[in-house]
């Protein structure tokens, strides 16, 4: 593997990954709507809107593998989310097929299964249960990736990322994905010899983790960080509200907010990495 393409390269998760990717690849193609800062010697920026197939096709030319991290990472009105999240996913997989790219690693999300109750521990084979248009876009892309695997032989790893935000509430103690573990998860997804079309949850080794990666052990992902180190401070200030329906779902406010309404705004902070 000598050339890695990264969509959504100007986003925060892309920023977490760039250094590690630059160290392992001869060339890293960075694509986004705007150029990320501080390009390294072996990084090349190619501007593209995800819903523009010709631009995506040109951006992925020469890549051996694609990390598809570009999307609207929040709930949004249907007309806004359709292009980047739905059409964009199709464009990435079709361009990968046309270029002979062998593997797509996709930043999916817990919101593909966000309507399940938090009291239910869910695994990698749990059926889709989206909590929003955003979650539905992740279900679509996961199914699209499986279709391209079955019909065209493109392998995929679907990373159902929970939250890469700094833990600051009770929920985050179970669902945190540290930047270091994100890098490891991506590297394991790159290095595993055969992945077919696989799902893995993007979570660290949290003592309170509400999901199971038992069915994805073949990837070799062994997270090292644990949000429990933040527990004393967070729990001392916590005010659990059993009547808050958002706290009863894996998808939090994505599961209880109205369709098309920003969940990030409802939370009052950016859930970096919620998808």
UniProtKB/TrEMBL annotation:
Keywords: NAD, Oxidoreductase. InterPro entries: Epimerase_deHydtase, NAD(P)-bd_dom_sf. It comes from the Bacteria. Residues 4-168 form the NAD-dependent epimerase/dehydratase domain. Signal peptide: none annotated. Coiled coil: none annotated. Gene3D superfamilies: NAD(P)-binding Rossmann-like Domain (3.40.50.720). Pfam families: Epimerase. GO terms for molecular function: oxidoreductase activity. Belongs to the NAD(P)-dependent epimerase/dehydratase family. This is NAD-dependent epimerase/dehydratase family protein. It comes from Algicella marina. The lineage of its organism: Bacteria, Pseudomonadati, Pseudomonadota, Alphaproteobacteria, Rhodobacterales.
